[in-house]
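TODO from last week: model NADH-quinone oxidoreductase subunit J.
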Amino acid sequence: MIFSGEFLIFMLLALIAVMGGVLMINLTKVVHMVVALVFTFVSIAGIFVLLSAEFIAAVQILIYSGAVTIIMLFGIMLTRHNDESEPKTGRLRKILLFLGVLGFGVVFYIGVYNVDFPQAANTLHENNTEQIGIALYSKYIIPFELTSVILLVALIGAIVLAKRDDQEEADKE
């Protein structure tokens, strides 16, 4: 069986995504966990590029690899945590985790391998970014704008809560 370049790139990206997820679960330092999560997010964006979903890949990089990761790092820096209080994992847990991930991979591979996609799915990738933009700014403009307002309210709420916590700590001292 001769493997195509696209298949090999997919397998490499899938391996990086799975390894990043497994490392995120098994690492003990929170910053290392976030870096493993970034590897997973970026490899998933690469898989989206292979599927001709460039817009989704760009959103994956911007939102998850960028914004969510930075929010997690800020959360880590702003909270007090004790890394030494976490219990060390045993060898049995690591073996069971590996077997679980391997079993999930086999079941997922068998499920995807046996799926029969219709022929119409082959033409969906043409001008997908343009189609998303037209739909977003014509048919879905109200939900799009409401989402931006909700995010703005959440940002203002987070600032107010952070200021209140700072004032309470200053009053205690």
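Done. The mean pLDDT is 82.
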